[in-house]
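Posting this for the archive.
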Amino acid sequence: MTVTYVKQIMHEMKIGILLASPTLRSRLRRKRINDFFTQYDQLSLTPQDKGYLELAKKVLSSENRESKKQSRSRLSK
């Protein structure tokens, strides 16, 4: 095996190990969602579609998730 091949295998293993992390997968999903929101913001949408986009942002925003986590922790106490 060449050194380059071994480095490539190790790099792929690191990616696989990182993707096994639930926290990292969650962050990657959020980043992809935010990227899609940015793309849709640049389109000329109808007022109704803009409303749906804003609703989706509110539902999927990290702030909304944080408030849900806080309310769940209060309920569990």
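The mean pLDDT is 77. Residues 35 and 46 are 20 Å apart (CA to CA).
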